[in-house]
Amino acid sequence: MHDKARVLLPVVAAFLALVGTLAIGPSSAARQAAAAPVHAAAPAPPVASGLSANPVGRSPAPDLGVGRPEAFSVPVAQLTSHDAPGVAPMGQLRTADLFVVAPTALPSRALAKIGRLAGVTAAESLDAARVRVNGKLAAVLGVNPSQFRSFAARPTASSNRLWRSVASGGIVVSYTMGRLDKLPLGGKVRVAGVRQQRLRVGGFGTVGVTGVDAVVSKPAARALGFPAGNAIVVSAPHARLSKLSHQISRVLPRDATVEPLVSQLNASGAAGLAGVTRATGLSKPTQPSRPAGLTVPSFRGYPTLSRAELITMLRAAHSRLGLPYVWGGSGPKVFDCSGLVQWSFARAGVVMPRVAADQALTGPAVPLSQAAPGDLLFFHTDPTDPKYISHVAIYLGHGLMEQAPEPGMNVEVVPVALGAGFAGVVRVDPRIAATVAASTG
């Protein structure tokens, strides 16, 4: 989910801004490193010391799937009735390439016209809104489970019982949300939109639209007060997405937005994790002027953090050591992994997007051998969508990193042990970071 030069991008401002909110109401060495003060010295040059491509000790990422065997089974609750609605079997998997969203229902003719455009292989109508699940904001889609399942990653798409749970009126939440927020698999959660419902959690499975936290059936979405048919997911795996996006925008109402969920590499191909670049016209930034004599790590000509920004960010992160992990926590007293990153960079005046998958797009990918203090390390920890970036940590140099790991643990400094779940290194470019943050709300 995450072919040649195509990778997932987040659901951007479309979902978060236009739809709006529908709501009613470590080792001893690591400990010594954690205790050591952050000195106002110049950033260390890129170093590879202490970084190993082989697993050493426990995984530095939370225990949410790294190194799991291929036989992993998506967590799904038992169906409560043998009469639960059936769903169509899994068909050919589709890429989710573009996402269309509006504050209100899109005209049916728009869906038909999009489906006829050259390069479009599928276009599926959805209901989309941000609601509260047990009091926490979540981006949720109302779907036809028989049709929408083909947009999910194979482990999630292949679970008939999971999609029957959706058809039965339950809610399926992302693997990360379900496990880290300790939602009750098979139990009920309070879902508050314009109207409030108690829905049974039918499974934990990440779906094919990045940034979406949960899915329900269309009838359940209507019962919650979602706008009917205000979103469309488009599969166009061989189309030029910038051109297709323009064509689609011409058949939409003025208040609708079309955004890419994948990106095709531009000529430079340098920005973002594993070659990710945005398809939104972001050009390669120019190198800003810097004080004479200041050397800051850089990569392929991209500007990076200044010395002052880097020191401030690292000091801020260091000040949070020992504070508890809470899923969705963004500080200043509780954090999840990406919340710690966003909060620490904000102290240095650098605007970052909120979630790890977005933060992987905030600068150029850096070879492991060139990793430097302040770079971000990313991990795949979601076995229901093995290519989804679901964990981030701050590299401190000398083989150490700081992270907010998982519930029951605190912000910590640990050795970097690179295993199968390691996704790569990104050096934050403040200009790119601000652009990504603005487009993701």
List keywords for this structure.
Barwin-like endoglucanases, 17 strands, alpha+beta, about 20% helix, endopeptidase fold (from Nostoc punctiforme), six-stranded mixed β-barrel, single chain, about 450 residues
The main sheet orders its strands as 3-4-8-5-7-6
Structural class comes to alpha+beta
CATH topology of the largest domain: endopeptidase fold (from Nostoc punctiforme)
Give the CATH level 1 class of the largest domain.
Answer: Alpha Beta
Oligomer: single chain
Number of continuous helical runs? 13
Helix content: 10-25%
Structure write-up:
It is a single chain. The protein has 441 residues and is α+β, with helices and mostly antiparallel strands. It has two domains: 26-69 and 266-439, Alpha-Beta Complex (endopeptidase fold (from Nostoc punctiforme)); 98-264, Barwin-like endoglucanases. Helix content is 22%, strand content 20%. Strands 3-4-8-5-7-6 form a six-stranded mixed barrel. Strands 12-17-13-14-15-16 form a six-stranded antiparallel β-sheet. A two-stranded antiparallel sheet has the order 1-11. Helix 10 packs across helix 11 (337-347). The two termini are 23 Å apart. Mean pLDDT is 79; it is low at 1-19, 23-49, 52-59, 64-69 and 263-301.
